[in-house]
Amino acid sequence: MTDALPTPVPETRPHFSTQLLTRNEASAALVLFGIQMKPSTLARAWSTGKGGPPCQHIRGKPYYPRDRLEAWARSQISEPACSARERDLQRREARRHAPG
Asked: Residue ranges per domain, the chain?
């Protein structure tokens, strides 16, 4: 009788686009987009429902889906503008084409 080695089980890590980040990890990930939000600021944004990325809770602990966090971060970055007036026109145009 020979001792057979067990077959290795493939690693089951979540796909990059569905990876869930803690508040600390989300805060660090946002820095890559030039957005500095402390974990406490993310918590406040979620609790007030204003100005923060989408969040979900698992057993009471907050997690940020990486793909939605990155989409939110991209939505916070404006196109380059030469003046405040040009930026206002961009905002109005974006609101006109926004879904909803």
From this structure: 16-94
